[in-house]
Amino acid sequence: MDKTAQILGKSSFKRVMRRHRDAVIAAVILTPMLLFWLILSGVPTIFGFFLGFFNWVGLNDTPDFIWFDNFIRFFKDPVYTGALWRSIWLGGLVTAVTLISGFGAAILMNMPLIGKGFYRSLWYIPAVTSTVATTQVFNILLDTNNGVINNFLKSIGKEPIIWQYSAGWGIFWIVVYSAWKGVGGAALIWLAGLQSVDQTLYEAADIDGAGRWAKLKFVTMPGLKPIATYIVITSLIGAIQIYEQVLFITNGGPYGQTEVLVFRIYRDGFWDFNLGMAGASSLIMAVIVIVATVFYYKWSTGSDKRMTIPNKPIKRGR
């Protein structure tokens, strides 16, 4: 009886393995990567979130469980609410500039140009270049005493600009740098979307006498909607978490007017060793990013009364 049970058990195991062979192979491949992520990222991230419920200032201090006091302080302290607000609107501005410029670059890349492979590579070089290296180039341009821009202003008889003392110029250069670094990746994704639009729709639009604007509005934009959803979500998540640009270009100045939330978390965690507030701020930012992502995704897919071509004839263009 035992041998029969063993034989049946082995045969059923083999049958299950054959049926779920792909799933088993995927599990074998992914398990080491999952463990690697858990050890190096997952566990530290969860631990950082739990820190938000403790009062822990200084590595030699003893953590004191204080429930939601750090979160209450976050929303009462203008330092944190200001940093959060700057992260939101500055991230939105960077996202808008990056997407618009990336879309324009993608349209140029999609044109039948000679050497377009090299041309596309030029756009993508900033995305794969180290942030530390590229921000140092910007610092050379913006140096108060011997910067390229200030030397040019002096040569034409203008007063040099002390960039570090101007919040407006600081924000301007953060946006310019972020867009310059992100436009290549955005352009390639837009380009993939442009090339995936069914060409027969353009041919049908040509037969109907549609102009360039009509084809862009009624053919291209509806076809790009899935790509647009992805690129907006990923770009917004990245833009809200701006850090290196602020650190290397303005260092949060002047007087904290360009300090964003990730930079504030860095200061709390590694300068002031206020680990509890750093953990609370991290958890709040994670929740905001998740909520914003879900909201945008629901809005973009829920309004899927897609931009279909209307029943009325398209106006003829030039």
Automatic annotation (TrEMBL):
Domain of life of the source: Bacteria
Transmembrane region(s): 23-54, 88-109, 121-142, 162-180, 227-243, 275-297
Membrane topology value: Multi-pass membrane protein
Keywords: Cell membrane, Membrane, Transmembrane, Transmembrane helix, Transport
GO annotations of cellular component type: plasma membrane
Main location: membrane
Protein name per its UniProtKB record: ABC transporter permease subunit
Coiled coil: none
The keyword Ligase belongs to this UniProt entry's keyword annotation: no
The ABC transmembrane type-1 domain, residue ranges: 84-296
GO annotation (BP), single: transmembrane transport
Location within or outside the cell: Cell membrane
